[in-house]
Amino acid sequence: xxxxxxGKRALVCAASKGLGRACALALAQEGVHxxxxxxxxxxxxxxxxxxxxxxxxxxxxxxxxxxxxxxxAAALAxxxxxxxxxxxxxxxxxxxxxDWTREDWLKALDANMxxxxxxIKATVDGMIERRFGRIVNxxxxxVKAPIDVLGLSNGxxxxxxGFVAGxxxxxxxxNVTINNLLPGLFDTDRIxxxxxxxxxxxxxxxxxxxxxxVATIPAGRIGDPAEFGAACAFLCGxxxxxxxxxxxxxxxxxxxxxF
Length: 259
Prior knowledge:
Structural class: alpha/beta
Helix content: 40-55%
Strand content: 5-15%
């Protein structure tokens, strides 16, 4: 399927590794000119070089912390009028809520709720003017099925979800959609860290903790980031203009609910 977005411009956050990288690659395969942002310059430049091989051209790499005002300013200076915005930032660390301070909560909110909102605020009006915009927020399957050790993430991402639910209904009439992608267990550094924390908390080996998590997934495996990237690219496509305010759960069937 031709997604009809060749020549569009995308700003993809936290895109040097993991799911952000997969989204950037999938968009580039559709002919989108991609600006990628991440803190680690070495991994960022390696991803930019891989994207350039796909032939879309115009790839820009911005080494910055998107969760800071300075980082957002640098990203928007490099891509001031994106047609596509993929919001993503590293999740807060796992732990026990009794140990978290007010500063821990504010840092989580800054990264996983307020940063996406600030980037939406900076770009959505331009999308409305051009009568095309696709905003995808990478959140977490924990929004639907909270994970006990990820309380900071559960709270911050749920706040973003509530905000998007209201705004997405105001922009879709201008062909600007806003949706959330909720990853379950994918083969990323983040998941390896979460599973490692669970293994430590349960005093078991990492392999045993991972096997226990996989056993809860009807698909019988963890996800390939490329699958996630393909879902993101579709939501950014011209054919997805009737989809907005939705929470797409990609978890191999792990969530047992009907809704």
